[in-house]
Amino acid sequence: MKNTLYQQSLISIQDLSLEQLQLLFTLAEYYRSHKDSRPNSTLLEEKIIGSTFFEASTRTRLSFESAAYQLGAKVIGFSDANNTSFATKGESLKDSLRIIGSYCDLLVMRHPAAGSARLAAETANVPVINAGDGANQHPTQTLLDLFTMQTAFPHLEGLNLVLVGDLKHGRTIHSLVQVAHLFKMRLYFVAINELSLPETLLFQLKCQGVEFSFHQHLEDVIKKADVIYMTRIQKERMRPDDNLQPLVLNQNLLAKAKAKMKILHPLPRREELPTELDTTPHAYYFEQAQNGLYVRKALLSLILTKEVPL
Amino acid sequence: MSTATLAVSAIQNGSVIDHIPHGSALRLIQLLGLDQYNEKITLGLNLPSKSMGRKDLLKIEGRLLNESDIYEIAVFAPNASINLIEDYEVKHKFTAILPAAIKGLLVCPNSNCVSRNPDVSSYFHVQTPRQEVNLVCHYCEGVFRKEDIVEYTR
Fold first, then answer.
1. Domain, as residue range, for A192
2. A231: which of A170, A280, B14, B97 fits an S-S bond (Cβ 3.0–4.6 Å)?
3. Cβ separation of A114 and B140 shorter than 8 Å?
4. Do A267 and A124 touch, CB atoms closer than 8 A?
5. Same domain, A277 and A224
């Protein structure tokens, strides 16, 4: 297997070819199936990962840092931008990125401005992994979402995806729908009008020939779903006086679903996904979150080593 | 007075942009920074055209459009014809051809885009699916129609 990800940045999910996705999933599956023996524990022992989170994160940051440690790398960085020169001394983002890049071998970055990760990749002299840029992209979440679906279904081709909640602000949604065409997935968008998918993305899906439809209620489409992808309403990206009510998944709705249907959620969750569903056979979001570790281990391994470490 | 006489008042040195889709000339004035220009500008709106039905036309005294101007014009007036005039004679004639990318002129409509920072230049990739002109922001990846662009850095 040839490693075409070596020294490459991952900014947008669209940067990856189908072959690169498959390569990542192969290595992620290797790490998942050997989770107890933790192979490649010294693979990155000479490497330093810059973990730069200008915006809050729990799962993404900790799974990246855990992935780095499990591969033997060292981690430097910050999880609170308020303690940086960028926030306190007015340093430009470009200057900050250039300097941080000179201290490490790879940058993992989350930032509230859309496009900040692309800017980082052009400014820092090391590969950059986008860990979320505003409402734009969250490509590693999409990798783990796809990988999780692949562990639950024989193949990804032709799956019916029902995407629910805040489709306007959810960057996990924005990244995920952009790969639907690669697997000929059918998309069902369930959201109130105020939180529907941005026009520009719909336009892009049309150009890619993706089949999709809009719905106001989950019960209209639940029978068709292979995967229900729930998202929370992102109040932090709205005005304080916006008071939008979430679409809630419940046991009554689940009674109409296919037996093998899986529920995914990028977490954190709110009332849209009640904890009473955690024990149903459909709940798959904790496995999804755990898969983030294996996918991120695979990504760090492939970007920082020339050969595929299998 | 005939329509032809109204439309064709000669200029000594400068540029003539003809065959502009009707309704687009005012946007070109903004795009080329001509709203701050001190020389004579002749603007023709809704002029009759055999090939287009209606067209707009711009004559700019004293400014020879350069290559990057012509690319930018092409986004909003694809296939416009551009004549560079020297001493009342047409010295060069071009058709506005779409560029592959436009750097540093258009402001990204996404208010949260990193290209809005003062030390970052905007950068759009030009795509033409189904005969339309789309501008894809290199940074925030937003896909915009040309009508969505309402601010310029010039």
1. 139-289
2. A170
3. yes
4. no
5. yes
